[in-house]
Write a structure and sequence with these properties.
single chain, about 950 residues, alpha/beta, eight-stranded mixed β-sheet, 39 strands, flat
């Protein structure tokens, strides 16, 4: 739709959504141009559905009805439609009403709402999606309650209202059920919304990865080219569904042994997935043919889109719009393809060179085809198989977030590996990663960390080390290279998680053992003294030593080192069998092998077969608790649960629950999977230890979920008032970010209980004296010019001025030394109790999302970089840990006999700021500097707030797909 004929048309209400069955629909406002669509839609609705809507037989709409239902002011009368292929499949409208139930205008805050869904699309979750969006529109227009009347027999619509999670009242009046819904979001409504989002997006990916039929469009008759390669992979890997080749010039019934057709329409049977491999200028015709045939999803291998420049990016946007108009989802363009090794699917719709990946327990997502080839080859070479593989190319539609939704409750995937270059919606990614990591490891390598000029991958604002730490806080195992991605994935896919950081080291080389010991210390592990079995050690010696280490309560993981034997060689298979036997005898602890010039051993271990049955890789093994490092007496950290207790947090209400019990078979020993009984082997000690260290950190994070803390509620927060203020501040035409003036910043922060100490301007000495009398002595005199702000070292601040003469003298000295008052912009501020000067900030980072930061003011944070960060929204435990994470934290807790400051007040400030930034994505930056924390209470002396229109995609509000 366009706004040319209706300047008031709210284009920001348009959204693409994923429905319950995995298809998509577009939600948009209804306009006067939709009269014909509305009539056509109504004609396709059954008489029963019409009766439920109007409480009487209503076979057709009158001209007056059509006018009423297509003419809205978008304030008191609003109508939304769900469309597929440009045609209506459902509508919803609300009319603002007063206390008497009659039409009204603002400030009336109640509206009557009604739905109508075409019978062919009922049961797809269309009404639930429309309710989310019409509810968000209503809140935007100042409506706080919906009223609805539903016939008792209309059980489907009653369920839509009662299942949404809003607080509601229900009564029976005049033969109808009357429902009143409070539109204020609740924890339950948010949980319901996210559970529905997960099911819908996971289903949409499942339809792409488990199709019943596939058509490859663009198969050359010569057998060369991308389309023919994809067709051969599908054919040769034994795809279980129907397979078709499409070539507009096909003259034979078969192409490469596969039934061939000139067009998709000629196939004459349903097609679930189409693989498109035609030039970019012919892709729109292929998409149109697929949409008209009812294809559910596309994998577009064709290049020439966003990766090729502005014209290609525009072509990509048009592609996404076209695909979604037919209710389809898209992998690509410029994709490398997809693989699903499930025994009942065996789909290889990719360009991966043969041999194809074996069946395994690792899910793999990449944006780069080249990296995808490297990862597939690396896993195959080391004996590990895949459950699924998606190389999304430009990820114009299906992204890593969608794949995480699918993997979350995919029983075939135990470990998720991801190579990412960008995060389109970082808030959503960290939320989904945190939830998925609670039940299975998520390992991420990220490209574009140091972006060269002209490269399409955007850079980040925060240091890379900070971004890595923030992702780890969400449970993500962050690695730097593709090699490390494979190394860590191998260990997590085949071994249980360690209960602590204690590592036993044994092998037949003292030097290699020492190297391993040093690597453990470097990675923060606690290695035991290496056990040297000497170069004369036999496979039985290895077995005995490994069994003893695994049985010992003093270690949590074992690294075995092996070098070639001198003289008579023991077969690698014998050593591999000995190690497997020891693990089978004492399961429950991870084992990694370091081999030097023993390629045969690595191969034997990677292809090992047996009936090993340790605990599952995604469970935490109960063993003797590891000794822990005592907390610093000056900075007491929150206590952690005892190591070794298997913990999995419950999913949100309505979300599927992931099984995670001791009885679960180890992933590597499930029938029909690659790497059965496999022990991961590494050619260098540093690589093995890195993998073990990541497993230790991840296991510690999993245990910490038992007491992850809460995001507190504060009764004095005025969320609605803040939203109204921000809307007014951003109502102008400017699209760029703006910095609020002092008054607006103080008002906004005050709505969240953050009080900023006021300042009074002092353009001359007389004004300074009057300001001091207003505030009361003692006062501070300071400059606010940008080049002198927060620079006490330059003499721009004079403190504890107790009398008029002292203030005038300080004013004269200040202006004589630094410049004219018009340049310095001096202000007067009341003095506050002495304490520790700190800095509290929040920024939006394109990789990590909203971030909360803390440090001490001045040299520690500015020169030494001693600043700690947490993801937003922060919990009470996050706030407590944030204070204790900086190196200068002892200064807050009574260092060298000083009085401890009021850290509870500081934690509350952090939590309030976190709530502000989380609740309002318009707030893109806040700096509170300095925050003086005294022994009792704190004072915020200065605040800077930057705001901008919220991005098209946030992780708040109703469900929506990325828009183009």
């Amino acid at each position: 739709m366009t706004t040319e004929s209706d300047p008031s048309y709210p284009a920001h209400w348009e959204a693409d959504v994923v429905l319950r069955d995995g298809g998509t629909a577009r939600i948009r406002p209804i306009t006067a141009e939709d009269a014909g669509r509305l009539v056509s839609f109504y004609e396709q609705v059954s008489d029963e559905s019409k009766y439920y809507r109007f409480f009487a037989p209503y076979p057709r709409l009158s001209d007056r009805d059509v006018h009423r239902f297509t003419h809205h002011d978008h304030v008191d009368r609003v109508g939304l439609a769900a469309t597929i292929g440009g045609e209506f499949i459902a509508t919803v409208r609300f009319d603002r009403i007063g206390p008497d139930g009659r039409p009204a205008s603002a400030p009336a805050d109640e509206a009557e709402v009604a739905f109508l869904v075409q019978d062919a699309h009922q049961g797809r979750g269309v009404a639930s999606a429309l309710l989310e969006h019409i509810g968000a529109v209503a809140r935007e227009r100042g409506i706080r309650r919906f009223a609805a009347e539903v016939l008792p027999a209309n059980s489907k619509m009653i369920k839509v209202f009662t299942d949404v999670g809003y607080q509601q009242k229900r009564s029976f009046e005049d033969g109808a059920v009357r429902l009143t819904l409070d539109l204020e979001p609740t924890a339950e409504s948010l949980a319901v919304q996210r559970a529905r989002e997960q099911r819908a997006e996971a289903r949409s990916v499942q339809r792409l990865l488990a199709p019943g039929s596939v058509a490859v469009i663009g198969v050359s008759r010569s057998g060369g080219g991308v389309g023919a390669a994809a067709l051969r992979n599908l054919r040769d890997t034994g795809f279980h569904g129907h397979l078709y080749a499409v070539n507009e010039a096909a003259s034979a019934d078969l192409l490469d042994g596969v039934r061939a057709f000139r067009t998709v329409a000629d196939i004459g049977a349903p097609v679930d997935l189409a693989v498109v491999a035609v030039p970019a200028d012919r892709v729109p015709d292929a998409v149109r043919a697929c949409g008209e045939h009812g294809v559910q999803g596309l994998v577009v291998l064709s290049a020439g889109y966003g990766e090729s420049g502005p014209a290609g990016l525009q072509r990509q946007r048009e592609l996404v719009r076209q695909v979604r108009s037919y209710g389809m989802r898209l992998i690509g363009p410029n994709a490398f393809g997809v693989i699903n090794t499930a025994a009942d699917v065996e789909l290889n719709a990719s360009l991966a060179p043969t041999p194809a990946s074996a069946r395994g327990r690792i899910g793999l997502f990449t944006q780069s085809g080249a990296i995808g080839i490297a990862l597939l080859s690396g896993l195959l070479r080391r004996g590990e198989g895949l459950s699924s593989f998606v190389s999304a190319g430009n990820r114009a539609d299906v992204s890593g977030n969608d794949i995480l939704q699918y993997w979350y409750d995919d029983d075939s995937t135990d470990v998720a590996l991801m190579y990412l270059e960008t995060l389109g919606n970082p808030r959503k990614f960290t939320r989904l990663a945190r939830r998925t990591a609670a039940v299975k490891p998520v390992v991420v390598a990220r490209g574009g960390r140091h972006t060269p000029a002209g490269h399409v991958v955007p850079g980040t604002r925060l240091p890379e080390s900070t971004v890595s730490e923030l992702l780890r806080q969400a449970g993500v195992i962050r690695v730097d290279t593709v090699t490390e991605l494979v190394d860590v994935g191998l260990l997590l896919a085949g071994q249980p998680l360690p209960a602590g950081p204690r590592v036993a080291i044994l092998g037949n080389s003292e030097s290699l053992g020492v190297l391993t010991y040093d690597a453990c210390l470097t990675r923060g592990l606690r290695p035991l003294p290496p056990l040297d079995l000497t170069t004369a050690a036999t496979p039985q010696d290895f077995r005995t030593a490994l069994a003893d280490a695994l049985a010992s309560p003093d270690c949590d993981a074992v690294v075995v080192t092996a070098i070639p034997w001198v003289g008579e060689n023991a077969p690698a298979d014998d050593l591999a069998s000995a190690l497997r036997d020891a693990v089978a005898e004492h399961p429950g602890k991870p084992v990694a092998v370091v081999h030097v010039e023993l390629g045969a051993l690595a191969e034997a271990l990677s292809t090992a077969a047996g009936t090993v049955a340790p605990r599952p890789a995604n469970a935490i093994t109960p063993t003797a608790p590891a000794a822990t490092t005592p907390p610093s007496p000056t900075a007491p950290a929150p206590t952690s649960p005892v190591a070794g207790i298997p913990l999995t947090p419950p999913p949100p209400p309505g979300a599927p629950r992931q099984a995670d019990t001791p009885a679960t078979a180890h992933p590597a020993t499930r029938p029909g999977t690659a790497g059965e009984g496999r022990i991961p082997a590494y050619p260098a000690a540093e690589r093995a230890v890195r993998a073990v260290a990541e497993a230790v950190r991840y296991a510690q994070w999993r245990r910490s979920l038992a007491d992850a803390g809460q995001v507190p509620e504060y009764e004095d927060i005025d969320e609605a008032g803040a939203a109204t203020q921000l809307a007014a501040l951003l109502a102008g035409p400017a699209d760029s970010a703006i910095t609020l003036d002092e008054a607006d910043a103080i008002t906004l922060l005050a709505r969240y209980g953050i009080r900023v100490l006021p300042t009074l301007p002092a353009p001359d000495a007389g004004a300074a004296v009057r300001a001091a009398r207003t505030l009361g002595y003692p006062v501070a005199l300071k400059t606010t010019a940008p080049h002198l702000r927060h620079r006490a070292d330059l003499g721009g601040v004079r403190l504890a001025l107790t009398a008029e003469a002292e203030l005038r003298r300080a004013y004269d000295e200040l202006t004589e030394a630094l410049g004219k008052p018009a340049e310095l912009l001096p202000v007067v501020q009341a003095m506050v109790p002495r304490g520790v000067d700190t800095v509290v900030r929040s920024v939006i980072d394109p990789t990590a999302g909203a971030v909360l930061s803390f440090g001490l003011a001045g040299v520690p944070s500015e020169l030494l970089g001693d600043t700690a960060h947490r993801l937003v929204p922060a919990t009470d435990r996050d706030a407590a840990a944030l204070l204790r994470s900086i190196r200068a934290a002892p200064l807050l807790f009574g260092w060298r006999g000083s009085d401890p400051v009021d850290t509870p007040a500081l934690e509350e400030l952090l939590l309030r700021l976190s709530r502000l930034v989380h609740d309002h994505p318009e707030v893109i930056g806040v700096s509170l500097e300095p925050v003086v924390v005294a022994t009792e209470g704190l004072s915020v002396l200065s605040a800077t707030v930057r705001v901008a229109r919220p991005p098209v995609r946030t992780d708040l509000g109703p469900r929506t797909l990325p828009s183009y």
